[in-house]
Amino acid sequence: MSVTKEIDVRYRDLDMLAHVNNAVIATYVEEARLHYLDTVFEVGFDEFTFVIAHIEIDFERPIEAEESVAVTVEVPELGTSSVPMRYEIVADGERVATAETTLVFLDRRGEETVPIPDDVRERIKAHEGM
Q: Which of 104, 124, 123 is nearest to 114 (CA)?
């Protein structure tokens, strides 16, 4: 089951053509990811360490300044220590971009990968119907 985050387009997000700058889309993806983590993980971020090991964005059309934007995120599968996430970025009801990230869990020192914590794994599986 996906989680959707409504995004407010800010003036500072715009380029000289009044389109949302392509680099800002990564920030919109981050906002959606954090919303997913807050909604599904239900634990404080200080309880575990993770990094984004991969990000990929495919653009279909620009987002205009006045458009309403929403980013939907889902987890299609789980690895041992990784959580792949897929995103759909929509403006005024039309898909404008898709993205993928991979979140990897690390030990407290941030040096070695570790398995996804069992409670987090179970929450994701329950939420996504895995």
A: 104
Q: Kindly state the average pLDDT of the residues 55-72.
A: 96
pTM exceeding 0.90: yes
Specify the CATH number for the domain of residue 49: 3.10.129.10
CA distance 105 to 103: 7
Q: Where are the beta strands (DSSP E) in the chain?
A: 3-7, 49-59, 69-74, 82-91, 94-106
The band of 44, judged by pLDDT with boundaries at 50, 70 and 90, is: low
Q: Which domain holds residue 123?
A: 3-128
- In the chain, the number of structural domains is 1
